Automatic annotation (TrEMBL):
This is Aminoacyl-transfer RNA synthetases class-II family profile domain-containing protein. Belongs to the class-II aminoacyl-tRNA synthetase family. Type 1 subfamily. GO terms for molecular function: aspartate-tRNA ligase activity; ATP binding. GO terms for biological process: aspartyl-tRNA aminoacylation. Keywords: Aminoacyl-tRNA synthetase, ATP-binding, Ligase, Nucleotide-binding, Protein biosynthesis. HAMAP family: Asp_tRNA_synth_type1. PROSITE patterns: AA_TRNA_LIGASE_II. Residues 210-660 form the Aminoacyl-transfer RNA synthetases class-II family profile domain. Gene3D superfamilies: Bira Bifunctional Protein, Domain 2, GAD-like domain. It comes from the Eukaryota. One of its GO terms (cellular component) is mitochondrion. InterPro entries: Aa-tRNA-synt_II, aa-tRNA-synth_II, aa-tRNA-synth_II/BPL/LPL, Asp-tRNA-ligase_1, Asp/Asn-tRNA-synth_IIb, GAD-like_sf.
Amino acid sequence: MLPPQRLCQASGGHFSTAQNSLVAAIAATLFQKTWENVPSTPRTLWKQFNPGTVDVGQDVGVNGFLKAIRRLSANLVFATVDTGTGAGVQLMVRAKDNDDPKGLLIDQLRAIPLNSPITARGLVTKVQFLDPSMSPRLNPRLQMEQHRDRLLYRVDLDLTHIEALNRMPQHIVVKKSTEYPAPFPPGFPAQSRHLQLRFSDRLHNRILFRDSVANRLRELLRAPGLCEIETPLLFKSTPEGAREFLVPSRRHGHAYALPQSPQQFKQILMASGFRGYYQFARCFRDEDLRADRQPEFTQVDLEMAFATGSDVQELVEKAITKLQNWLNVEWVLHYHDRDLSPFPRNEMARVDKEKTMGWHSIKKSFPHLRYDHAMKKYGTDKPDLRIPFHIRRVEHVLPEHFIRMITNLEKPMVEAFVVKSELHLEYHKPMDDGPPTMLVFDPSMPLDGLSSLDHDGVKKLQCNGPGLEDFAHLEKGDALFFQAREDKPFQGEGSTAMGTLRKLVYDLAVQKRFVQASRELLWLWVTHFPMFTPDTKPGEGQQGLTGLKATHHPFTAPMTPKDFALMATDPLQALADHYDLVVNGVEIGGGSRRIHLADMQKHVLRNILGMPADGIKRFHHLLEALRAGCPPHAGFALGLDRLVAVLSYADSVRDVMAFPKSMKGQDPMTQSPGPVSDAMLAPYHMKLVPSEGTASEETASEDDQGGKDLA
């Protein structure tokens, strides 16, 4: 509410002197009443009492949210307070009779809406460890100074004072079943993200879990000597591949660009004499969104001077191994409605221990798999090692008429896999190379249900020859999937049609509960990627004009001297010293050894990619750093959002981010991006112009500037 003087001014002077005096008097009265209801903030709000050190009879203060009130009689009331520290506090008010002053305290307590923030004082009547094993009396070896304030205690207070610091609105109803992202009611919509974070235990715990993972990673990266260094967020546009977010500047014709990654800065740091670097970097890419992708995200970025790719892989693998094994010390996984989510281990007394489990300990080094082998066996460069069936090449044992039946391609290769009967699902989806064909093994049918292959084809398929072991011991109900594709080498593709089908069949089987998906996290390295791939959209992305693009980014070094020579004669055959870290079908991160010689880097940009002179000029700062005696170096970027989502068994990275964007790149809570006006754009030498075509009603409703573009 405006103060009285401001309220009179706001009237615009349209009242008479007497009317203004009356308005001022009314406003002063209302303002005074409002101000009287504002609680005085205690000086000790932040510092909570430590339940592990308080004694019975001690006067203590507590701050938190009022969670429940139980009235046992007119003169006896209990209430619970959520302190957010793992300590459960119960308040008790007992009035001896109707004239007891504590009766007023009961009325005051009952008048406070549930879930309101409160501050209270009282005398300690009881301190109880809900998990006796965590008591310092029974477990004197416990490092209480590190864990005491996070243990789950039950503390009873005989209430002497309580005050509401704010009041929960009555129209916001919180039920036990309230969860995100259920529709409202009973759940809270995305526009009320603050309520989702506050009242969803799973979401709240995942954010706390993310903090634990980040802190542990910092410790593990500092141990080998890496130094945390921040790099700028206001950069400039450089053709690295992904579409960038531009930030206008007041300098005419110039704009900043938000970094896709700190790639160039971290290489320059290696040229600056730093032995090792890391940071939790914010990255921005204006790309199509999906469950594991956001326009802004966090990656754990690192770079090491005088290092090879193997050195980096060893460091990252040790960090991931120690991190996952450490999780079982601080956290458990809790089953809730068939879902798993992390739960603080020191609060296990709040849940059924039978519904908890830990993470599998990593005891072996991660396997390494070449890119081309991964594509042949799994149909993807991000293999999920939990899927029990593999892809086999089988056209050499199939009759010609069957191949012609499933594809129109000339001289195709045919791949197949066997799905055991318990995973059998119907699936039909058109493919560019023809639809997948499914045959079901059934001994009661002619040729066991494989008559499309004729006698000779069935015999050859079940001969138990090399690569055909899966087909030698078929059982009733087993399904055979066949798919044809062009017989050509892989050139950087992320997956094949057969690889997509394989994962889809398995995911559907898990979804339909035909099979229980393994909860084990199976890590592996994928290496030996092609250095360059055909560019179907020359001039875009990396802005090359030769029809080639760098498979990952143009700063990756060739794997061997042979690959260096192939860069000049046959670039598509050159292999990159690049490595991806994959777990359960999700790419968690990737890295490479970098080109550290300026002439080689310039050759890649100009001669192999065909980048125009103005594009190369944008990398002048990097080329100069390399030219100034930059040492060999290698690095890695670990997607923190994806890592936390995988470790916490979340369905989407949005479930491990406090304020994620929607699939449209919008923030539902703050309604960003917001509309702009010509007045706002004028300092940046920009203005709004009518867009081509008519904006949709949906766009217009989401953006008041619908129908206009920036120029």
